[in-house]
Fold:
Amino acid sequence: MSALNYVGSKRGKLVFAGSVYASLAALTVAFLFPLVWVLGLSLKTRLQVFADPPLFVWSPTLENYATVLQRSDFVQAFVNSMVVSTGAVMLSLCVGVPAAYAIARFPFRGRTFLFFGLLAMRMLPPIAVLLPMYILFSKLGLTTTRFSVILAYTTFSLPLVVWIMRGFFEDLPRELEESAWVDGASRQAAFVHVVLPLIRPGLVAASILCLQLAWNDFLFAAVLTNNNSRTLPVLMAAFTGGDSGTDWGGMTASGVLVILPVIIFSFAAQRHLVAGLSSGAVKG
Amino acid sequence: MAKRRSGAWLDRQFTRLAVLPTTVTMLCVFGLPLLFSAYLSFQGWSAAQGLFAGKFVGLDNFDDLLHDPDFIGSLGITFLYTAVTVTAELAIGLGIALLLNIDLPAIAVFRTCLVIPMMITPVVASACWKLLLDPGHGVINYWIGEHIVWLGRTDTALAAVAVVAVWQNAPYVSVLLLAGLRSLPHEPVEAARIDGASVWQMFWHITLPLLRPYLMVALLLRTIFEFRAFDNIYVMTGGGPANATMTLSMFTYLASFVRFDMSLGAAASWSMLAMSMLLCGFFIVTIRRRDTSA
Structure:
């Protein structure tokens, strides 16, 4: 099945295929250029960064990376980002997976309420939740802790986990648990011993998508952290604050180090990307 | 014996226990905060006071908001920004998806490359573009051969922040639509081809209508997410120059966390919430109606 079938002659086919490749190549260059250029900047010395006209060929240096990795604030922010994102994923999985199972399998009172609550959590603007959250957290003495950021992240990661996992549970044949129930297993035993092992791919997909969102978040972390608990995006925003500054090498090198892990996780989950992107909007 | 009984109790209560943690979390991080900010929006309250020590002021906060030229300006800017970015993302995303749907060797390479921008941390993406657009040393000005202060001019700043959003999210739309294109039935296209329809006719009369549910989902998601635009604006312009990029999220952020006018911030938050709910409701009704009538 391809558009190629509609083009008659062999020469026509070649021209068509050629123009498709040419357009895709042009798009790829346009979309990747900013990244390639920034990667290039991160491999230049200070003088090379500001060379006029810009250098397109030079011998790359890793000194910017060495400098960034020696900065204690960068390392601290990296650790904070790791702790906060994995914490948010763990919390959302523990809280959300049983709920997703219940929503997929059993009718219960309040199902619609739960459904719309989660939809609203995902769809409504985070800034609107952040102000009261900040006030309540600061009265509880939680602000500036990494735990407060983990809690705040459940506003997006919990709905995501529930939606993705619900899809996986619905795709699982019912007979598997039913036979376990007939054999005398309780619902919780069937859930833990029969269902969970089978939906491991779903758990992986949900974790990676949540990890990506949590790693990339700026707004919650910007408000709920201080200099000790800030995450990488907050540190990056501080680097670029006001004027772009003069340490372009350091800034681009740290930018590359921030996006590298997220690109790796995302490729790992590429198959499941669509399920996550459309979560909450397609089924309903 | 006791153990057995507790097991049976667990078994009977399984559903309730399974949804309890989610319900509690939802109420704590979402329900209660929203109720509190609704309450706050009718109060004169400052952060130094106890939680419920504010004074009831009726609709004064909303009144202040409607008389605040920055807020009124931010409404227009948010709608303009949302309309422009969403249209561009859908148009470019659809184009990319149609190209990637053609079966040619090695097309997967392009598919992989073209999704990279959507994975990148928005703050980093915006910082990158800030360097590309730098007036003195940016590569974009070097190519044009002019010295344009993109982020410092009221007529270019909004477009510059919008470019970053489109760059990151057109790939997102293309991933969604490509999945849609892949799932379309082959028969209608085959039938039209046998009847001698041109490629353009087939696209306009068959593919596009079949793809409509996916387009609607993309439209809904992108509208909701662009309406709340914050990261790129914070990093690139901070809402300036002269409020040219002051979106509602930016206004609410500045009111709440820079000027610390929490009551005004709460009123602005609730205005945004109401608008988002209207948007969501409108889209959901449209999608449902199309689904049932088709």
